[in-house]
Design goal:
With 90 residues, the protein is mainly alpha-helical. The protein has a domain of 56 residues. Helices cover 61% and strands 4% of the residues. A two-stranded antiparallel sheet has the order 1-2. The radius of gyration is 36 Å and the shape is rod-shaped. 0% of the residues are buried.
């Protein structure tokens, strides 16, 4: 936070002191600017948090699908049968 203005350099290098209500006006102006910045940052944070949540959900869904595919491949792929084994004749 910036210090309260104690005076501004005027013509000829002389410092002019602020009027009695001027400091309060400047503080209110700065406060309004900061409130707007905070609101904008909160909005950006909310949007990014929502995007992150969506990406996490997608990653979880992909991991679930990959696990299903892996489980399906291990069941669907039986051990290969060798053709060199003689078949019993009847």
């Amino acid at each position: 936070m910036a210090p309260l203005p104690t005076g501004q350099p005027g013509p000829g290098g002389k410092i002019t002191l602020p009027q009695p209500g001027e400091s309060l006006i400047l503080l209110r102006r700065d406060n309004n600017k900061l409130r707007k910045q905070v609101a904008k940052l909160e909005s950006t944070l909310k949007r990014r948090s929502e995007k992150l949540r969506i990406l996490e959900d997608l990653a979880t869904e992909l991991q679930r699908d990959m696990a299903k595919l892996r489980a399906g491949q291990s069941v669907a792929a039986p051990a290969p049968v060798s053709s060199s084994v003689p078949q019993p004749s009847e």
